[in-house]
Amino acid sequence: MLYYLFQFLDERYNFPGAGVFQYISFRALGAVITSLLIAAIFGRRIIDKLRTLQIGESIRDLGLEGQMQKRGTPTMGGFIILSSLLIPALLFAKLSNVYVVLALVSTVWTGLIGFLDDYIKVFKKNKEGLEGKFKVVGQVGLGLIVGLTLYFNEYVKIRIYAPRLLSTSNVPDVYTDVKSTLTTVPFLKNNEFDYSSLLFGVLPDEYTWIVYVLVCIFIITAVSNGANITDGIDGLAAGTSVIIGLTIGVLAYLSGNKVFSQYLNIMYIPNSGELVIFCAAFVGACVGFLWYNSYPAQVFMGDTGSLMLGGVIAVLFLAIRKELLIPIVCGIFLIENISVIMQVSYFKYTKQRYGEGRRIFLMSPLHHHFQKKGYHEAKIVTRFWIIAIILAVLALATLKLR
């Protein structure tokens, strides 16, 4: 909103300093500062309100050290993240930008799914929360919206440059903006993959949208659930999301900048640079929430926050066509997800084969395994953050390592 206000003031009245709002870097800085201020000012009030409404976490006794001391800690703290993210994004981003609109819709959509889950747990006293099938329906619905928008929207294009005939800098670029289902493949020299190739020539290319939408649904569901599973100990999901958000912000800036994209020989996606503002607000919101969620947590984000974080991260990766980097950048979410799948599958297999279920880990997800081994949860979180940083650096290195 402020972008349009200051653009009007600059064009109509030549208002001093108004032109600075044209710069993505300035608006990103404004977004991150605003999100931190909102979290700092209103975070405590939200926590007190949650406590007044007796919206406390009901803890199942899993035999983990210090676990029962957390009983009654306010949950639904995801509202702190939501408010700290949405308000700065609405203030500083271009609301006519299709990528920003998609990110905002995804935030509200997944936040609503998480809120329904928390509401049923807290107010209906149903520990299972929203039934899994309804969560999946919500995630599939978002996948349809995102997939169809990215495939059919006329403003979602990539820019293809014609080879220069002369090396002189005064020769203008020749390019074409085209609709495409290309995505980036890490570590490969000609690092682009077209989803139409998944049709294997059996179906004509006009059916590519079906494949693309199915891919979007799978990615959004997987990452959203991964973030949800990771949210098990103080600060783990929020801190990991900060690192992921910073990485996406860098990738979005490079992909939306003509000079850097050409220098790095990566896909140039017109208008995607605007997502840097959203990523800045996202990082600020997570850092602000982490102030209250770090050990010992004063508030839990609940599914209101965790499902939203994963869903938004997935959508951002899809928007900048870097979704194949998700297993690297979101490696923490991935290993947490895999640990649960391995544990459940092995338990069922051994129960069927030997008559009693056996376990690979002391407890899943993986962070609980280390808790069972006697590690303090603050140490587990810090080491998971270190791994997340290493993975983020590796992902950024793929821009040159091909």
From TrEMBL:
GO terms for biological process: cell division; cell wall organization; peptidoglycan biosynthetic process; regulation of cell shape. It catalyses: UDP-N-acetyl-alpha-D-muramoyl-L-alanyl-gamma-D-glutamyl-meso-2,6-diaminopimeloyl-D-alanyl-D-alanine + di-trans,octa-cis-undecaprenyl phosphate = di-trans,octa-cis-undecaprenyl diphospho-N-acetyl-alpha-D-muramoyl-L-alanyl-D-glutamyl-meso-2,6-diaminopimeloyl-D-alanyl-D-alanine + UMP. Catalyzes the initial step of the lipid cycle reactions in the biosynthesis of the cell wall peptidoglycan: transfers peptidoglycan precursor phospho-MurNAc-pentapeptide from UDP-MurNAc-pentapeptide onto the lipid carrier undecaprenyl phosphate, yielding undecaprenyl-pyrophosphoryl-MurNAc-pentapeptide, known as lipid I. Keywords: Cell cycle, Cell division, Cell membrane, Cell shape, Cell wall biogenesis/degradation, Magnesium, Membrane, Metal-binding, Peptidoglycan synthesis, Transferase, Transmembrane, Transmembrane helix. The keyword Magnesium applies. Mg(2+) binds at N228, D303. Its main location: membrane. Its cofactor is Mg(2+). The chain crosses the membrane at residues 20-42, 76-93, 99-116, 136-153, 207-224, 236-255, 275-292, 299-320, 326-349, 380-399. Pfam families: Glycos_transf_4. This is Phospho-N-acetylmuramoyl-pentapeptide-transferase. GO terms for molecular function: metal ion binding; phospho-N-acetylmuramoyl-pentapeptide-transferase activity; UDP-N-acetylmuramoyl-L-alanyl-D-glutamyl-meso-2,6-diaminopimelyl-D-alanyl-D-alanine:undecaprenyl-phosphate transferase activity. Its EC number is 2.7.8.13. The keyword Glycoprotein does not apply. It comes from Spirosoma sordidisoli. It is a multi-pass membrane protein. It is found in: Cell membrane; Membrane. GO terms for cellular component: plasma membrane. Pathway: Cell wall biogenesis; peptidoglycan biosynthesis. It comes from the Bacteria. Belongs to the glycosyltransferase 4 family. MraY subfamily. The lineage of its organism: Bacteria, Pseudomonadati, Bacteroidota, Cytophagia, Cytophagales.
